[in-house]
Structure formats: C-alpha cells, structure tokens
Amino acid sequence: MASVAGIVEDNKKIRDLIQRYLDMQDDLSCPVAVDSVEEMLEYLEEHPGPDVILMDIQLPGMSGIKGIGIIKEKYPDIEIIMLTVYHDSHKIFKALRAGASGYLLKHTSLPEIKESILKLLDGGAPMSPQIARKVITHFQEETPKKDPDSNLTPREHDIVNGLVDGLSYKMIADRYDISIDTVRAHIRNIYKKLHVNSKAEVIAKSLKGEI
Amino acid sequence: MASVAGIVEDNKKIRDLIQRYLDMQDDLSCPVAVDSVEEMLEYLEEHPGPDVILMDIQLPGMSGIKGIGIIKEKYPDIEIIMLTVYHDSHKIFKALRAGASGYLLKHTSLPEIKESILKLLDGGAPMSPQIARKVITHFQEETPKKDPDSNLTPREHDIVNGLVDGLSYKMIADRYDISIDTVRAHIRNIYKKLHVNSKAEVIAKSLKGEI
DNA sequence: GGCTCCCTAACATGATCATGTGATTGCCGG
DNA sequence: CCGGCAATCACATGATCATGTTAGGGAGCC
C-alpha cells in the first residue's frame, strides 16, 4: 500500500520538483504541496491527512516550527520531517521538541528524501548526518553534572535536600531528628562552601546540578 | 587513504566475521579485534590507535560503556560506535553520554556497518533507525514544560524569575523599579496560585519546569 | 456603566532566616 | 597522642519573609 506524503515549502521550484518525484514512485503518492502552514491546515480540514509531511522552516506566515506544534496537536498521527537549510542547533532542537520526527538538510537528494520517508514510516528517525551528530553531541553536553567537587559532607547534603524540598529549618530538624540550631550550623557551613547566603540560592544551585 | 577500524566484541564468530569483511574493503582496514576493553587498552598502549572502534556492551571484564569513558579520555580522537543487542533507552543514553558517536543494533548488515563507519568519519552519527527514534523521542520528552497552566501573569513571571535568581524582595523591587510592598503583593498572589507558601517552593517548582 | 483582573502601594505583626560567637563529642590520620 | 574535621547544640540580634487587610488606577468585557 502506497504511503501518502505532503509538502510545505515556499520555493515553488523545489516544491514541484519534490512533489513530482515522490508522486511518480510506486510506493508513494504526494497529492498536496503548498507554500504555507496555513494552507496545509486548510487542506487537512477537508481531506484525509497524509502519513508524513515534509516541512520547511522559513515560510510565509507561520513558521514551520510553530506549524509542527499545531499540526501535531490536531493530527497526532501525521509524522513530520523538517527539510530546511538551517543547521544551527537552536532551530534543530526547537523543531525536534515541537514534535518533528526527522530533520533533513536541503541538499538531500531526491532518492534520499524518499528513503527517509520510508524509513520514518518504518519507525526510524531520518536525519542528515550533521544533524544526527549535533543531536548526540547535545546529549553528551547534557551531563555536565560531572562532580563539581561539592565538598559538601553527607550531612550537609541531607540538609540541602531538605531545603530543596521546601522545608523550613524546623522541619529539617524534625526530619533528621536534630536541633534547629544544628540545622542552622550546617546551613552556615553550606553557605560558606557554596559562596551563597540564602536558601534560595542553595536550592537554585542544587536543582541546576551545580552541587 | 584507508581508514582504520578496531573491534571489541566477545563473540568470536561475529568478531572474526566483521573483521574479515572490513579488512577486505579497499577503503578500510581492521588490524585489531579483541574480546575485552582491557585487551584493547593494551593494544592501544603499543600501537597507533584506529580511527574508529566498534564496541559491544556486554563484555567479559569491564563493560563497554565504562570502556568508552576510559578510551575517550586517553584517546579523545578515536570515535566509538556501539554495536550491541541492547535497545533499551537507559543503555543507549548512557553510552551516548559516555562519548559514543554512533549506536548500531547487532542485526545491522556488514555493508551497513561499513557505511556507518564511513559516515561517522565523515562527521555523521550513525544510528539504527529505532535508536534514532528513541533519541529524538527523549528530546521531545525533555520538554514537558508545555505550559502547566501556570495562570501566572507576566508580572508574576518576572517576580518568579527574580526569586529563581536568588534575589530578596528588595532586590526584586529594585530590578523592576517597583515598591517592595508590591513585590510582596505579587508573591502573595503567586503563592496562592501555586499553592505554596515559601520562596523555596516557588524556586523548586520553577526549576523543575512546573511553572 | 458596572465587573473583573492586573499592577501598584501601604501598614502591621509574628515567623523564619542569616550570621556571629562559642562549646562538646567522636573519629581519623600523622 | 594530638590536631583537624564532622556533627551536634546553644544564645542572640537584626534582616527578611509570610500573611492579613485595605485600596486606587487602568484595561477589557457585557
């Protein structure tokens, strides 16, 4: 059974080229190719949705990234592949977070685009190699919680956890069955070690993984 | 110029098969195929490192994931592709965070493995489709801060940001050029809306993305 | 014109926090 | 055996916070 694709792309030449190529494939059809998210939404109102939509980012009217969110919300079963010249991390991540399932750069060849669509519908996540690399690099940076040499003693960590839980000195004292003055003493030391001087800053540092 | 690959894989049959295949390619050589991270480390002590290492996870002795970290630390220029049967998110993310640049499942065909190596050395990040999908799905889940109906007004968001920055009422008042009593009033309203009653809880909620 | 909501502001009071100073106990390592 | 450090506790004081009450001006809606 042939799968159905759609295109949102404001460059008519590129749009027509891709549409004609996809539509001539045995296992694909491409009945809709428009130049804005708004038009695609109108189309979707009156027609059964395609399985996958190729989407540009820079578009007249609504941006492709905003469009992802709207389409995904109304038609969660439609898969979206970004097809754009943008390869900066910010746009890539925004698109993926918005719900895109693939991200291709515009120099991708027609056969590769076709392969990507099929791969996506088969449960994959087609990405241009450079994009894939940025994504996994982001992953690696996501873990800077190496061990910022907290210097905090075990007990001090307990106290910090209490603060993060939003407890007052008294409640922390009760939780660990110690005196409120002891809590005070620990917190004094924590403040010194972290170079802060309020509960708020300790909580912030902790939740940001800096402890 | 032919690129050099290495293999760490404890199943001798698979190891030999892959090594023979890669070694017979014009653009690749595969001089080293061992069955543990420890052996690979010994090899690296005495030989120029390969460009890329295919690494299993389940290994005698040190795990492949731990091995990534050690190899990457001593030889940061060596790229590592995981080649394993494990497709659970936990192991995938651990491997990527440890420094792997690609992740293939073991049913990958020999030509695909070769393609993956070349793609990696060309700046890509080869992943089996299912893996790629899990990675980008993780990305999407990373943003559950959709909009938990904060109900907070713009000004209230300002105040929350001030709190998150560890500011006192006075400092917030100065930052936005309003009276400290106004700050108090806003915070009162914020507390009501969020059902909390301390700065600490607001900061915690905010940093956890619950606002 | 009423109504609701946001932003602003003031006054007041009891609770909690930040910080200083000091002390005791127990464990670890030179 | 003694010094260093973690953990415990105490007393004290000024700063800051949490909360109640009240209220005027402006934007938007029916």
Automatic annotation (TrEMBL), chains A, B:
The Gene Ontology biological process terms listed for this entry are: phosphorelay signal transduction system; regulation of DNA-templated transcription
Could you cite one Gene Ontology molecular function of this protein?
Answer: DNA binding
CDD domains cross-referenced by the UniProt entry = LuxR_C_like (cd06170), REC_NarL-like (cd17535)
| Signal peptide bounds | none
Name the SMART domains for this protein: HTH_LUXR, REC
- Alphabetical list of Pfam families matching this protein: GerE, Response_reg
Report the residue ranges that make up the Response regulatory domain in this protein: 4-121
| Coiled-coil residue spans | none
All copies of the HTH luxR-type domain together span: 145-210
According to the UniProt record, list the residues that bear 4-aspartylphosphate.
56
Give the record's keywords alphabetically.
DNA-binding, Phosphoprotein
PANTHER family cross-referenced by the UniProt entry: TWO-COMPONENT RESPONSE REGULATOR (PTHR43214)
* Protein name per Swiss-Prot or TrEMBL: Two component transcriptional regulator, LuxR family
Q: Which organism is it from?
A: Fodinibius roseus
